[in-house]
Design a protein that fits this description.
Structural class: mainly alpha
Order of helices and strands: HHHH
Radius of gyration: 20 Å
Strand content: under 5%
Shape: extended
Number of strands: 0
Distance between the termini: 45 Å
Number of helices: 4
Length: 77
Amino acid sequence: MIHTIEDLALGAIELPPDQRLTLANRILASIEPNEEPSIDVAWSIEIRERIRKYDMGEARCIPASEVFAEIDQHLSR
């Protein structure tokens, strides 16, 4: 029987990578709020619109390195 989080973590680390990923997904899923179909539909529409704008050259794209640098700068204030 597992008595502490540390014991659990040590046991989990010994699992093969695919099983660790499955375990991590199950743990994360257990704390996610219930799915809302309307939210999923809204996100699907938003994603398609963003892709359309990107494909049409209408989107202003910023390299991820710049985005992360700006976040780092903001968080270090």
